[in-house]
Structures are given as structure tokens and as C-alpha cells.
Amino acid sequence: MESGLPANLCTTPIRSVTNAYTTKRRRVSLAAVDLKSELLAEPSSATLRLQPTGDRFIPCPSDSQVPLNTTPRTRRIANVFGLTDDKVYKFGNLNASAGDSSEYNHLRSNFLQLLTTYPKVSPTSCVANLGSRKQFILALDGPGVPSDPFAYPLTWSRRNLIAVACGKDVYYQDLDSRVISHLCKITKNSHGRPTSVQWADESPTDIAVGTTLGSIQLWNSETQKVIHEWRDEGWDAVGGMDWRGSVLAAGLDGGAIEFYDSRDWHTANRLEMHRSKVHGVKWSPEGNYLASSDQQGVVYIWDVRAGKNLSDSRRMGGRIKHGAPVKALSWCPWQPDLLATGSTYPDGKIRVFTVKSTTPIPQPLQVISLNTAVTSLQWSPHSKELLSTHGTAWDPKAPRSASGRPVAVHTSLANSITVHSYPSYRRLLSVSAHTGAVGHSCLSPDGTMIFTICPSEEAMKMWKVWSAPERPVRKASSWDRFSIR
């Protein structure tokens, strides 16, 4: 060798070569070492076949542990030692092909599955119930159901009775015994056809029937006789109805809201703030507020606390304006200050308001743009979720019709049942419910199922959406053996 260095310094050429007798680094020539014959020997074909090309479990370091390309000289040294060719393992895409190392890919994928954590799904959520089945559990025929998309032909009582308006008749079925009964038939032409039905809360055997000519009849399902009958002077068709104790609120086509007491033959009160057909009326769970909506997309919230009678001066805030008619109204059962509204074509949005708003015109806390007609809304009493039913869908970016309105298209939300989470309002699932628009829905007494109705199909379907939480088992206590006299 040309250098006077000891021979033991060249026995391990891959390590950095250092002068052992001085702190100053000196250049070392490797010409005397025959590296090409030893390190650059042509590998055999058998070695190439057995050598894996996959990443295996190599972590994600940088391409090289030392900067081997800083100078031309270090590049030459790296070429000599084979540190820049394909024989050095480098981190690659886990999903990329790894040549003959398919066994390592299988081990890698299994290992990653062990590290993956999935969010825990609540047993009361729609994901664990409707999401696992996505099928209705009962279907009923409803020949002659009202074709009006703003009708309320379906209602579910606290005694598990489902009633439906068909033609001039009203039928109900006991879902426990599956017995179908005929409640009544509107025989007088001056009364019109039944379009809205609503079971009473205090007396679950009584049901209110509203007609197209302003007649509201209160029937008893056990005796099948009329208890009371009220008549609007303007013969306006009856829209939505809702009970608060013994008081029934009913929206009329003329824009008025009338209140009837089941203990009295006369009209209890009347509100006349709306300027178009009143499609929806809904009492809050505690009965402190009343929400109403109309054809022009105007929503009012009325304050009836402290036992005060409703009047036009009891209106809270100004007009809450929407871009389309509003039928769907729903108060949250576990947060009574929240009100959800749903607009139809051509707005197609869900808005959530709070009665605690201090602004003159309440602003929505959340707006969910769906580009689909919202026909009904249901808050879950068991989980923080909001269900909506839908009709026609449209694409706002598609060319419009000659009238300037969006053209209907088929999407996953059209004619569907959709559930949103709270407070993120993320869409949890969407299930196609009918071949036509879902006209209306109602919630079961236990808050776990809904019934939907489709006028074009003349059919109704029952869906299991949520589950009630399990009641904790109370442990026996020693104090149970004793009592105070």
C-alpha cells in the first residue's frame, strides 16, 4: 500500500477511515484495495430470485442516513460500496406492489388492521339499527290517501294505534294485535275529504279529523262516535294540527290558526298573522311555545308561557323567512329550545333555530343544504340525531327549466329517509324509502320507529330507526329489608 497506515485500518472499509495519530483528517486513497472484484461481483441468478424487493417493515427514514451526494468524490465512493443503487432498502408506498414479497404485504396489512381503531357506535344510534338493516319491517296499503304533499294523513297514538285517511274514510290498526278497524266516513259533501288526522295526547282514544272544507271532527275510537265538531266560517281547508293537553291548534288555508278545546263546543282562540296557507303547527315538548309555517316560507314562534292567552302581540321576534314553502317542523325533546324547520322545492334546506335568540329576527344556528324537498322532521328522543324525509331532488348547477326553476334529478337523497348527527349535523345514513316522494312521517310512542307514507305508491312503511337505552339494573341493598312506619 502507498500509505504508511497500519493494515488493520483497512479491514472494515464501510466504516469511515480516520487517522489514528493526529486530529487532522487526511485523505486516504483506496486504489490498493480491490473493491470492484469483491463488492461489485455479478450476483448469481439464484440470488436475484430470492432477494425480496418489498419494503417489509422498514420504517420511514430519509433516503440516506448520511449525505452521500455532497461532493463528486463521495458519490464515487458510494457507487463503489453500492450505497446508491437499488440494493438499499428505501421506504415506499405500503399499497404498492412488492415483487416477490407478497407474504410480507399480507403480514403488513394484518398488522395495520390491528393498529386501526374504529369509533364506538352507540346501540341507540340509527347506525346500529336502521344502518345495519336498511329495510322496512312492515308495509301497509293505503288506497285513496290524499295526493296533496302538504297533507297530514298519518298519525300514531300513544296506545300504538296507527290511523290513516283514505278517500273519505279513516281507518286505524292496532299494531300489537294487527286488527284493522274502520273509524268513520265523511258522508256530507259539504265537509269535504279528510286530509289531516291527529291523535289526542291526554285521551289517546280520541282523534281529530280535519277536512278540505274547514270541518274538524273529534272522534272516539272505542265508541266510533263524534264527540265534537267545529267548523271554520271561511270553509278553509285544514292543514297541520297538534295537541297541547286538551287544546288543539289547527292551521287553515286562509292563513289563520284556530284553537279548539275538547271540553268546549266553541273556538277557544284565533291568530291571523300568516298571509298564506298555514302548513305546519307544532307545540314545543313543554307546551311553552308554538311554531307555525306557511306557503310563503314564513315561520313564526309564539310564546304561551305563564298561562297567558295567545295573541298577535305574543309573537316572538319577526318573520323567519325561508326560500320555499315550509311544512316540516320539529322541536327537540332533550333540548326544548331547539326548533328544526325543513323547506321544500326549490330551497331544500334544514335550519335549526333557538328560542333563546336575542336578535329581532332569529338567525339559524345551522343550515343544512340538501337540494331536496324536506317533507317531515323527527328528533330522536334517545340519541342526538335528527331524521328527515324527502321528496324531489334537483341539481342547482344543472340547466334550469323555462320558468327558471331547477330541473328534478335522481340523487341518493330523493324519496329517502336521512339521519343527521347533532351538533356536527354530519349525515349518518340515507335509505331510499319509496319510489315516490315521502309525503309525511310520524314517530312511534316509544321513539324508536317511524311510519312513512307515499301518495304515489298508496302505501305506508314502518322502519326501525333507533333503540331505547337499556335501563340499569338496580342492585339489592340491605336497606330494602327495612321500612319506616
Automatic annotation (TrEMBL):
GO molecular function term, any single one: anaphase-promoting complex binding
Cellular component aspect of the GO annotation: anaphase-promoting complex
Protein family according to the UniProt entry: Belongs to the WD repeat CDC20/Fizzy family.
Taxonomic source organism: Phlebiopsis gigantea (strain 11061_1 CR5-6)
Superkingdom of origin organism: Eukaryota
SUPFAM superfamilies per UniProt: WD40 repeat-like
This protein's UniProt keywords: Repeat, WD repeat
InterPro entries (alphabetical): Cdc20/Fizzy, WD40/YVTN_repeat-like_dom_sf, WD40_CDC20-Fz, WD40_repeat_dom_sf, WD40_rpt
WD repeats: from-to residues: 271-312
Keyword Chloroplast: no
Protein name: CDC20/Fizzy WD40 domain-containing protein
